[in-house]
Each structure stands twice: as C-alpha cells, then as structure tokens.
Model the fold of this input.
Amino acid sequence: MGRVSVIRLLALLMALTLSVPASAQIIIGHRGASGERPEHTLAAYALAVEQGADYIEPDLVPTRDGRLIARHENEISETTNVADLPEFADRKTTKTIDGKEVTGWFTEDFDLYELYRLRAKERLPAIRPANTKYDGEFSLVTLEEIIAWAKLAEKETGKRIGLYPELKHHAYFASIGLDTVPLLLNTLKAAGYTKDDPVLIQSFEPTPLVQVKFRSGFRTVQLMSAEGGPVDAPQLSYAQFMAPEGLKQVAGYAHAIGVPMSSVLNADGSPTALVQNAHDAGLEVHVYTLRRENAFLPPALQMGDDPAGIGNFAAMWTLLVQARVDGVFTDNPGDAGKLKIEP
Done:
C-alpha cells in the first residue's frame, strides 16, 4: 500500500469513528476461536461460542473409512504430531491435490481410530506462540462429535449454535471414491438437522454446492478467492463469479458468497461494488478472515513492527461494517463480539 493510500485510509477511519451504524453481521468462529486455541479442536469451538460466535466453522476432510474429520487440510503434518510417531512414518507420501504436489501425511490414508492416536498442535507457532502451550492436549474430532458437543452446549446455554462446514477438495476426494457430499448430508440428517436449521455449507467448488442445494435444501455458500478459479470448473474464474452476471448465476444455487476482505474493500478502505452487486443478486456476503495480528492486517492498521503483535482489529471491523457485509469469519470472535452492535 502506497503512502497516499495509507493517508486516505487513515482519513477514512477517522471519519468512520464519528458515525458507525448498527451492525447485524453474523460472527463465524473461523475453525473455532483459532486465535487462542489450536484450530479445529473442541476447545477452539467451545471458546468461540463462549465468546459470542453465531456459527462455528469446521473444515471437513474424510478418513479412509469414510468418516468426516475436522482439519483445515487433508495433509495433517502442520496441525498434528503425526510426523513424530514412528509407527506412521511409512504413511508419508506425495500426492497431487487440486493440481498441486503436496508431500506429507493425509487423512484418507488413515482410519478414524488411527487418527484418534494423534494430537493437535498450533498451525502458526511463530505468530501465535501462546497457543503452543496447548500442543498435544487435544485430540482430533469428527463432525458427529462436534454436533454432539454443540447440541449439549445448546441445552446448557439456551443459545442456538450454527454450523458452517466447508467441504474441502471435493473433486479430488470423489475421484478416489470418497464423495463427501453424501457423507455430510447423511451425518446432518442423522443428527436431525433440516434446511430450516442454522446450517451453512460452503465450498470453493460449485459442484458439491449444487448437489447439496438440490438434494437437501440446506443453504450453501460459494467461496471465492481473489485469483484463480474452481478446480471443478477450470474454464471459469472467480473474477467471472464476482461480476454482476456471474453473481446472478451463483444465486441460483447459493445463499451467500464467501470472499476475501480485499474483494469488498479498496486499498484506501472504501467499499468496492461487490457487496452491492451481490445484494442486488439476492446474495449475502461473508468475508474471510479477520485476525488481530499485524501479519494479517494492512500496513495502515498494523501497530508496531512485530508480525505477531496486535494490530487495529477494531478499525478493520469498522471498515467491514461500512461495506455492509453480512458475515465475518474471524479467528477472534471475542474481539468481534465486543464490537458488534445489534440493531
């Protein structure tokens, strides 16, 4: 960001602090409260709900025996201690996932009870050293276990807990005989969820979302990135999806779009046209991922030179409110909850 853009952003923020409208954004605990606990653990989800998250977000990948487990990726050496266990040394391999070569240990090469022998660890130890004190404390969890915990927590707190699962690498898993759409829908049905419950199912690939929508009626969210396109529709780009005509097509099978914060904010902090265009098409807009560390904030909102230092989270929240987004994925739902003002 250039000096002029920084000055414009600071000026905009000063103006915004004078008049911040009431916000109805949903707070989505991104992998739980992953800014304070290792991601995708029951401890992270529980803390997110305690801090006021409306939804918890489990990324889902399958095991060899067809169970859905919560991990950000099917390669698990960054988020578990699998590399430290000699009995699994021979499982290390190299695969091509969505066109990229990846080396490590993969959930689809383990059955569930083998994965239960692993322990979660902090994925970003350099940025979140405080989280490393929990390394080895928590086991991996299945979607069924997350749902069972959520239903118990609902009874204890009286608060409804929304589920916002992401189907990861659907085309790849389907190609090896592990179609995650029926695995997800059967699990939700067995737990008693219907299309009227607070469930949002997301993917970067449109194919599983169309299947979910027309097989079950659950609300779906088309994820998009700033570059590239979906692996299951290589002739298309996410830029085409974000164009007004593309948004109308997405609205045929999705309730919302999930996009990077940079897609709804210009470099100076002013809103782009995306939110208005999406709303005109009948879509909500949920943005990812609001984090409080300097490493994840624009230069004008960083405080100090330490990438792990805490930046101006509140200012970024204010910019997103002004952009009229409908939901925010955040690693820090407690910080977001303090800023949210119900209309």
